[in-house]
Amino acid sequence: MRRLPICYATVLYDFLEHRKIISIKSLHGSAQLLLDVTGGVTQIVERMHRTIAREVNPLNRLRDIAGAPPEERRGRTYQVIQSTTSMLQHGLHQSLDKFSTEEEPLHSPQSVKVAAALNGVCGDHLEASNNPLAITMHFYNSHGEKVLPGSEKVGAMIPNASPRIVVLVHGLCLSHEYWKGHNEGNLGTELQRAHGFTPLYLNYNTGRHISCNGKELSKQLQALVEAWPIEVEELTLIGHSMGGLVIRSACWYGTELGQSWTGLLKNALYLGSPHHGAALAKAGNLLTFVMKKFRYASPFALGEHTSAGIKDLRHGNLLDDDWEGIDQDDFHPDYRKPVPLREGTRHYFIAATIGNNVSDFKSMMVGDLLVRLDSAKGQHSDDLRKLSIRPEDCRVFAKLNHLDLLDNKVVHDQILEWLV
């Protein structure tokens, strides 16, 4: 199990600080994560201590070369700390597991957002360790209520259901709450009012592999259209940032499995999605790779502790084949399998740049601060990876950053124009 470094304690503190109600489930998950952080810090300190000891005492170096068992190389103090941590984790599970299945109380939008950030940075670890704080994929309606496709209550949860469905998929470290907007308005309700769509908002664990979320989204979309109270005529998917990659992954797996929802998919929109990777993820990977080459810096290469979802953003991985059997902390070439846009669906791309002119050098290189323009527009030097789109289906907006794409009026107006 991956140990977590102390930096994740800050996100956890924010999570607890913004909770209106501390349920047993939240207490269980928070305590479990704190113990994981303790184990991670102990591991870092131990690695640094052992590195220094090897330099001071040549006999320690000989023991490492001779292949002494890890338990012999580990100091007695560190063994005690890790053993104590493991005992506490076991006791925690025994004490609180039976209470963690309780229904979660309603939380403030702020606490939901902080929980989403926590899942973004270490969501794969939360899932693998069965931590109650791990977010499970769900649809939400405009009132913030969960919509369960397999339930008989779907009709009651979706009053006045339309044959036109739009599903909005958020990006890394975000949640469905971000679509509600804090400046210009709610894109989902605007589409409902202007064009008769029924909006649903997806919430999911962005720390998981993109391909895992893509496969699950495909499965849930199939269940959704089958349970919809009236016949579905049209499905539209809108993804912001990582959400656009999850949509493309779902389209691939849905098509491969012959699922009927793909035939209903008329439109797919990508808002600032890093189709060929995000610059920040690439820089983080390079820094981690370099730090691991130096003995004293290696224990502090915290990038290797980031989530699988973040690592997928280095190249824009969409499929299991893109990461299985590959050390994602290594500085390796782009091994992705080319995934073309799904035929029979109209694909729209929106990108942004913080510059005043979309065609100047600064705008091309910096983009919206997180995603460069060429990646957001699907451009690539390799024709097999390049996403073929029509000029009229791509817009670039100046003086906007990555998060502005969620709730900016000019962006909303363009989407409304496309989805008539």
Automatic annotation (TrEMBL):
Cross-referenced Pfam families, in alphabetical order? PGAP1
Gene3D superfamilies per the UniProt record, alphabetical = alpha/beta hydrolase
One GO MF term on file is: hydrolase activity, acting on ester bonds
Enumerate the InterPro entries for this protein. AB_hydrolase_fold, PGAP1-ab_dom-like
Domain GPI inositol-deacylase PGAP1-like alpha/beta: from-to ranges: 164-324
Top-level taxon = Bacteria
Protein known as: PGAP1-like protein
**Species the sequence originates in:** Marinobacter antarcticus
Give the taxonomic lineage as stored in the record: Bacteria, Pseudomonadati, Pseudomonadota, Gammaproteobacteria, Pseudomonadales
